[in-house]
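Lab channel / #folding
Pinned by the channel admin:
"Please post every new chain as: sequence first, then the structure tokens as a reply. Keep commentary short and put observations after the output so the thread stays searchable."

First post following the new format, from NK:
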Amino acid sequence: MGKIVTFGEVMLRLKSPGYERLFQSPVLEATFGGGEANVSVSLANYGLDTAFVSVLPDNDIGTACIRELRGFGVDTSFIVRKPGRMGIYYLETGAVQRPSKVIYDRAGSAICEAAAGDIDWDKVFTGATWFHITGITPAISAGAAALSLEAVKAAKRLGLHVSCDLNYRKNLWKYGKTADQVMTELVKYVDTVIANEEDFQKALLLSVESAGSVESGELNTEQYRAIAALAMEKYPNIQRVAITLRESKSANHNDWSACLYNGKDFFLSRKYQITDIVDRVGGGDSFGGGLIYGLNTYQDEKTALEFAVAASCLKHTIPGDYNRMSASEVESLMKGSG
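Reply from TO:
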């Protein structure tokens, strides 16, 4: 197995203590996190060779972030340093009927100011077999969108398997293009798609009869097979679609599962009842990291799916963006009663 490369923005995360509201106390907990960096950390924890690519400010904050990623065993040698700032997000953890709240402050960050040509993708992809990106990166700026498209094109030209978590974020598409204008082009170069129902609707303009409601806590999984098949019909390059299924009972209590369709077989995972969520931020990223690990490790896609769901379930018990579990710990949950 070759190196697995991820690309995107990593941010400074400022969180209110415990379940407090933002600035209820004059204290914020400072850590780092970002969708693609979270995937690389998961993969490094599972023992895989992984590199994270980004554009970070050439200051002490950017240096501290790189130092932390290196501590997990992530290759950061392809990160580009430029003048500017690091994006920030503020997090208030919800409880019971009060939802969590995220406030972004990422405009003008170093990666927002980047453009196509800033990264030597041929060099980055030397020795790599897999490339992962999300729909968050092309949402932050026109330059980041151009870099993202350049990256997936280079990855396919060099024979890499490309995965993309569509990850639609309505608050990010502010620079003049809509999600569907960008993502319908980018997904033409993707082999494995990770998504939920809203991602398909907003990023790819695909929909079927309602698959249910996250808020109602009831999901029609057969409709997910239909929307996955629709995506693969429209984009014949897609080899498989994995869909995360979150059923929210409250901010602290979610049921968590997923399904996978490969054009022939449809797999539905075990469902986990997560009754005391510690931190759900990064839950989807831990699923992505688990799925990439599983598809590169196990002989069948059903086992890979079960590993991804178990990994993501465990992430809900860990504060911070990163999933700090080993592969053996995830496998213990897979093989146990749940």
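NK: The mean pLDDT is 93.
TO: also worth noting, The two ends are 30 Å apart (CA to CA).
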